[in-house]
Design brief:
Layout (H helix, E strand, L loop, with lengths): L11 E4 L12 E2 L7 E4 L8 E3 L8 E4 L2 E4 L4 E7 L8 E6 L2 H5 L9 E10 L3 H15 L4 H4 L6 H22 L8 E10 L2 E7 L3 E6 L2 E4 L9 H9 L20 E2 L18 E6 L4 E7 L1 H4 L4 H15 L2 H14 L6 E7 L13
Parallel strand pairs: 1-2, 1-3, 4-8
Antiparallel strand pairs: 3-15, 5-6, 7-17, 8-9, 9-10, 10-11, 10-14, 11-15, 12-13, 12-16, 16-17
């Protein structure tokens, strides 16, 4: 049973891609030109790392004489083995990327990076991606260009993160210490100033809380979804009646799994291509939840948002919120490893909103 299925959202979401299912976001679709959440389609047609800071980042900056909202970043995470015999999840929480990049960093404030990696076939791939993906992002020749104010953040950041996903996937094929049967789903969130970019390959999920409502910032890549099934079949693969790719994998996108993929450089049914969504954060954006499928198998996005919101109003502690989400997933019968990250955009707890359950 999935908790919270009877809840709904009323947010508007604008799309650049026209060929994706309308049910990939739990909200009403809109063609308004002023929307600030957008899906950026992927290019395919057919142990924790923690860096936190105690410094408070100002909420406003002044550009051209106008006050601009800036999020104050703080996060918490929880990762438990659950009912599994072994742990295959990994994650990254980096509230202040400047601490990772060193004193010469001159990027926007705040700059943060988060990731959840849900491994399968052993933990090798998830551990490798956790340890190397961020370096592939910041080591890209175009990364420094993202930091410039006059550069289109979303298009260049999308290119950099995509390159990092594909480079990590290829590295898994070449790394002698990583089992070729090991793979991992990957979801990352990059925050620079007000800009949020979520990249996803697999069935981890990111959910933004906007004024108390859930906005899904990723789409679960399952073989049974219409567009994924079509892509798989167009590339010579098949989906079994119980929803498995080529009878083997329950996801249609992942890094690694080189026993399943075609030779390097060839398109195949199992893809490492990430799908992107971006948002321009405002005062209405309260927090972001990033979790593995062990959470979402038993919990609707709206229900998870309601739990985190309730907990923040009680104690205003994102770490405790993440623990409560894991406990709630266990209570609802999740049989998987459980990993979740909660990222808050303000030092204050969420406000009371009339009419919000």
């Amino acid at each position: 049973m999935v908790a919270g299925r009877d809840l709904c959202t009323d947010v508007d979401v604008a799309y650049r891609s026209l060929d994706l299912e309308k049910d990939i976001v739990g909200g009403q679709l809109s063609d308004h030109h002023h929307q600030d959440i957008e899906l950026i389609s992927d290019r395919s047609s057919h142990t924790q790392l923690d860096v936190k800071t105690g410094s408070i980042i100002p909420k406003v900056s002044f550009e051209d004489g106008k006050a601009q909202f800036l999020p104050t970043i703080r996060s918490g995470s929880c990762s438990e083995i659950g009912e599994r015999a072994y742990m295959e999840d990994e994650h990254i929480c980096m509230d202040d990327l400047s601490e990772y990049l060193g004193p010469t960093f001159e990027g926007p404030t705040p700059t943060a990076f988060y990731g959840v990696f849900d491994g399968h076939g052993g933990a090798d791939a998830a551990v490798y991606v956790r340890d190397n993906l961020l370096q592939l992002v910041v080591g890209d020749a175009d990364f420094l260009q993202i930091l410039k104010k006059d550069v289109d953040f979303s298009s260049l950041a999308e290119k950099v993160v995509r390159n990092a996903f594909l480079a990590a996937d290829l590295a898994l094929a070449n790394h002698c210490d990583v089992d070729k049967f090991s793979g991992t789903t990957v979801l990352t969130a990059l925050i620079m100033g007000r800009s949020l970019l979520v990249a996803n390959a697999g069935d981890c999920r990111a959910v933004l809380c906007r004024r108390g409502r859930a906005v899904e910032m990723s789409r679960d890549h399952k073989p049974i979804s219409f567009s994924e099934r079509k892509r798989i079949e167009d590339l010579g693969g098949f989906v079994t009646h119980d929803g498995y790719l080529n009878g083997d994998l329950s996801v249609s996108r992942a890094l690694g799994d080189w026993d399943t993929k075609r030779p390097k450089g060839s398109l195949g049914p199992l893809s490492a291509e990430p799908e992107f969504r971006k948002a321009l954060l405002s005062e209405e954006d309260e927090f972001l939840i990033i979790g593995c499928d062990g959470i979402w198998d038993v919990m609707e996005s709206e229900f998870a948002v309601s739990i985190v919101r309730r907990e923040l109003m009680l104690h205003n502690n994102p770490e405790q919120c993440s623990k409560e989400l894991v406990l709630e997933a266990s209570r609802h019968g999740s049989l998987d490893n459980l990993t979740v990250v909660v990222v808050c955009f303000s030092t204050d707890p969420p406000p009371v909103i009339d009419g919000l359950n």
